[in-house]
Structure formats: C-alpha cells, structure tokens
C-alpha cells in the first residue's frame, strides 16, 4: 500500500502529523507532498514533527487569492499524483489545499481519504470558504474519516454510504499528546515572564476570512473593554500572519499594557500556553477542539460553528461577533467563579488520541494488496 498525504497550512500539518508518524511507525510506503499554501506557519510545524516532504510545491505568495491557491495547488499536484500513482491520497480538513488535493486525485482516478470529514455549519458563507471546501471534498471522497458521531450523521443525511464512513476521533488530540508537558519551560521572553498563578490569561486567536473587517474590529473592541475592566486579566494574542488581521489587531489593541501581541507561536509553546491559560477566545477550528481537551473554557467569536460538540458539552460558548456580546460574555466568565468552574472541565468530545492508529488500521484493512 502506498499512501500519499497532501497538506498546505498550519492546522492541516498539525492534524496530519500523527498519521504520518503512524505510517512511519508501521513502515508503510508513503509520499508526503506539501502545497505550502502557508509558508512560515507550515514550516514551523513540519520542523517540530521532523517531517521531510518528498514534494514541496511552494505555491505561497503574499496576498494570495482563493483562485491563486486553487489553480497553483491543482497544477502542481497533477504532476506529483501522476508520477507517484498512490493507492490512496489523504487530505485533512477544509482548506483550499484540501479541495485542490481531492480534485487532483479524482482527475487521476486515485482513491481519496478525507480526514476530519462531515463537519457542517450549514451556511456556505460561514466559515468561508471552508464549509464549501468540506462539502466539495466529500463528494469526491471514498473513505470519510469522521471525528464524531454527529459528523457521521451529517454525512448519512447527505446520502453517503454508511460503509464509506468511519468514526475515528480527531487527530488533533493525538497531536496534543506529543507536546503538552507539565514541566514545560517557555523560551520566549514574553511568555516566560507571564505570572500564570496570579493573572487570568486570555489566549486569543482570530483569523477567519468572514470576520475580517468590521466584525473583527467589533470583536477586538469587546475584548479590550472587558480586559480594561478586570484588573488581573491579560491577553496573549499570537497574531496570524495575514496582514489584514495584523492591521486590525495593531490598531484596536495599540497602547494597552495588558494585551500582548506576539508572533505566531510554534505548536509546542502554543499548546503549553493554552494549557496554562484561564480562558481561550477564538474563531479557530483547531482551538475549539484542543481547549476542551485541556479543560479550558472557550468563547467562540463566530456567528456559526461546525463544531457543536464543545458547546453541547458545556465547555464552549458561541458568543457571536458583536462587540457588546463579546464584552459581556468575556467579562462574565472572568468574574463569575461559578460559571467559570462549570465551563472549566476537561471533556473531550473530539477523540481519545488514537485517531491516527484507527485511520491507518482502516487503510490497511481496505487497501492492502
Ligand atoms: C487558511 C485556510 C483556513 C485555515 C487557515 C489556518 C483557506 C481558504 N483558508 O486561511 O481554512 O483556517 O489557513 O491558519 O484555505 N501568511 C503568511 N505566511 C504564512 C501564512 C499566511 O504570510 O505562513 C499570510 C499571507 O499574507 C497570506 C495570508 O496570510 O496571503 C492568508 O493566508 P491564506 O492561506 O490565504 O489564508 P488563511 O487566512 O491563512
Ligand atoms: N497554533 C499554533 N500557533 C499559534 C496559533 C495556533 O501552533 O500561534 C495551532 C493550534 O494549536 C491549532 C492550530 O494551530 O492546532 C489552529 O490553526 P488555525 O487557527 O490557524 O486554523 P484553524 O484550526 O482555524 O483551521
């Protein structure tokens, strides 16, 4: 069996890494191809996990549009897929690299395994373009690796054959096990000086396309107000490299001593920072999965989420994108101890850390010659 993995952005690399490691452990032939839709943020992850791509399409360009990513990834992948002719091509998640990867495999009639299949918000414009990417990829997929039961149910409702759907858990939980350590020491100057005992550290991340613009300004203004009113609260915000996000963050948060804007962190310090934080405020998909596993309450600064499991479990709350709602919910969670302890429970609706083993087992079962 020859397995080809294709990925291009930070979160895909984090969630594909445990599968690559598992394939390595079992000495299964594999070909690793990165589109490099992200450059620096991808390299941070592949260096940490010591992944050496066989192909690097290096498509990243500053200010890339969705069309740029789709065309350049598809064109580069055509050559690689034709040359390697794997038994299966694996993609992970909902980025434009994922959709291009699925299409490239389909055009060569190569089987497709979609890792993290079946998540749905049922609004094509939120998350944008990810909801569409996930659906478009589903149509071309032979093996749907659904993290949860409700992801599987979404696929069944859309008419996919139940024999093609496998509940595996999310590989993000497998990845977390590599990095979070009780005795972890930060090398970064800002992080190593944070007083986690006496400060309520809010870990903030934000990058969604549909929020960029006024919504993001309103979200940040709401966070700023709450932090200014709660004495022992501080924010650490590793700012995404998207220049549009950086401009809004720098403008809204300027000159506030309790809000630390830092560069994107490597995965290891980042997850250890999350493990020591008080609250997570995010529009990220991955963080909505990691924070409940680490017992951190999450405020989801989005209008919709395709990850309702954390909300049902009571550790995450969808607070929307309006300033007043963000402010009120954050202030309440910072000051209401009862509410805080109700939300700060380690629950893990997203997996048990064995998703990558399961996925490789299924591949061996279905594809071994
Ligand atoms: C992409 C994915 C999104 C995923 C996110 C994870 C698409 C359409 N979007 O969004 O689903 O949640 O990655 O972070 O696939 N940049 C750099 N260096 C990098 C990465 C990004 O400078 O290493 C800057 C560039 O200016 C780039 C911009 O960020 O143009 C946006 O990057 P892009 O990959 O187009 O979209 P993301 O918003 O990162
Ligand atoms: N992450 C990281 N460094 C950071 C911010 C996030 O390593 O500075 C990790 C985080 O732990 C998670 C993933 O990146 O696993 C989430 O990526 P992102 O929010 O960019 O994308 P999404 O999950 O929304 O697609």
From TrEMBL:
Domain of life: Bacteria
Pfam families with a match to the protein in the record: Epimerase_2
Enzyme Commission no: 5.1.3.14
All residue ranges annotated as the UDP-N-acetylglucosamine 2-epimerase domain in the record: 22-363
Swiss-Prot/TrEMBL keywords: Isomerase
The keyword ATP-binding is assigned to this record: no
GO molecular function: UDP-N-acetylglucosamine 2-epimerase activity
InterPro entries: UDP_GlcNAc_Epimerase_2_dom (IPR003331), WecB-like (IPR029767)
PANTHER family referenced in this protein's UniProt entry, alphabetically: UDP-N-ACETYLGLUCOSAMINE 2-EPIMERASE (PTHR43174)
Family named by the database record: Belongs to the UDP-N-acetylglucosamine 2-epimerase family.
Name of the protein described by the UniProt record: UDP-N-acetylglucosamine 2-epimerase (non-hydrolyzing)
Organism: Soehngenia longivitae
């Amino acid at each position: 069996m020859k397995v080809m993995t294709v990925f291009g952005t930070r979160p895909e690399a984090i969630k594909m890494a445990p599968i690559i490691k598992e394939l390595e452990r079992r000495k299964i032939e594999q070909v690793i191809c990165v589109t490099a839709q992200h450059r620096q943020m991808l390299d941070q992850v592949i260096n940490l996990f010591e992944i050496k791509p066989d192909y690097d399409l290096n498509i990243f360009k500053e200010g890339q549009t969705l069309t740029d990513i789709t065309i350049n990834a598809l064109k580069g992948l055509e050559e690689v897929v034709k040359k390697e002719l794997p038994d299966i091509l694996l993609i992970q998640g909902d980025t434009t690299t994922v959709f291009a990867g699925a299409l490239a495999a389909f055009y060569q009639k190569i089987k497709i395994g979609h890792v993290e299949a079946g998540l749905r918000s049922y609004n094509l414009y939120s998350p944008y373009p990810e909801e569409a990417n996930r659906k478009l990829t589903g149509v071309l997929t032979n093996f749907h690796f659904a993290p949860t039961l409700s992801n599987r149910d979404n696929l069944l409702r859309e008419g996919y054959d139940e024999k093609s759907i496998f509940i595996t858990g999310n590989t993000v939980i497998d990845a977390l096990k590599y990095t979070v350590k009780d005795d972890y020491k930060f090398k970064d100057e800002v992080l190593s000086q944070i007083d986690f005992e006496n400060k309520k550290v809010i870990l903030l991340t934000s990058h969604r396309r549909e929020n960029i613009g006024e919504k993001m300004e309103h979200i940040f203004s709401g966070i700023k107000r709450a932090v200014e009113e709660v004495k022992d609260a501080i924010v650490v915000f590793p700012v995404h490299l998207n220049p549009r996000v950086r401009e809004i963050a720098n403008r809204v948060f300027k000159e506030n001593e309790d809000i630390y804007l830092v560069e994107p962190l490597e995965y290891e310090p980042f997850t250890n920072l999350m493990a020591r934080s008080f609250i997570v405020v995010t529009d990220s998909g991955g963080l909505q999965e990691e924070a409940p596993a680490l017992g951190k309450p999450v405020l989801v600064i989005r209008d919709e989420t395709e990850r309702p499991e954390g909300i049902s479990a009571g550790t995450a709350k969808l607070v929307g994108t309006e300033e007043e709602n963000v402010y009120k919910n954050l202030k309440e969670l910072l000051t209401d101890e009862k509410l805080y302890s109700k939300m700060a429970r380690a629950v893990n609706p997203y997996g048990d850390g064995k998703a990558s083993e399961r996925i490789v087992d299924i591949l061996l079962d279905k594809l071994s010659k």
